[in-house]
Write a structure and sequence with these properties.
3-stranded antiparallel sheet
Length: 62
Amino acid sequence: MYIYKTEVLSGSSKLFSRRANREDAEKLDELFNQRAKEGWELAAYEFLEEREVFIITFRREQ
């Protein structure tokens, strides 16, 4: 059985525009790597353009 954790990244991030750079991508990598250290794996993600948010869901075994 899995448990899930969902995070929302809001449109305040430059990742939603052409202004994103390698530093921004590295910050996103840090988030994924931190969750992996906690035992979470990426389960799903979605970009909601009308709300300018990323919905990122992680899962791990209970």
